[in-house]
Design brief:
By secondary structure, this protein is an all-beta fold. The protein has strands at 2-4, 19-28, 35-41, 62-64, 73-81, 85-93. It contains no helices and six strands. It has a four-stranded antiparallel sheet with strand order 3-2-5-6, with no helix packed on it. Strands 1-4 form a two-stranded antiparallel ribbon. A hairpin with a 3-residue loop joins strand 5 (73-81) and strand 6 (85-93). The radius of gyration is 16 Å and the shape is elongated. The structure holds fe (ii) ion (FE2). Residues 11, 17, 81, 83-84 line the site of fe (ii) ion.
Length: 95
């Protein structure tokens, strides 16, 4: 499963405004609780000893999660922005 924040509208990626992590869950059809597939953090956002946005390195909020399942279900992705908080989206997985 490919997860990317800001596919339609790019999210800012600066020292002051950035995505800190993405988490992916899967709720198998007919089951009660979603299972965590993976968690990815993004730890560099342009900060440097010279100040904010002075580095040439910016972690990009993109993740690939690979898993096997024999059931259809719902993928639930969450992402955390340091300014706007928690975002979530869902997608159906049909087997
Ligand atoms: Fe944001």
């Amino acid at each position: 499963m490919f997860v990317k924040v800001g596919e339609d509208i790019p999210h800012p990626n600066t020292t002051n405004h950035h995505i800190r992590w993405i988490n992916l869950f899967f709720l198998p059809e007919g089951e009660k609780f979603p299972l965590e597939i993976g968690y990815c953090t993004y730890d560099h956002h342009g900060e440097s000893p010279e100040g904010p946005d002075k580095s040439t390195i910016y972690s990009e909020p993109v993740a690939i999660f690979v898993f096997k399942t024999e059931k259809s279900g719902t993928l639930l992705a969450t992402a955390y922005c340091n300014i706007h908080g928690l975002w979530k989206s869902e997608a159906e997985l049909k087997i």
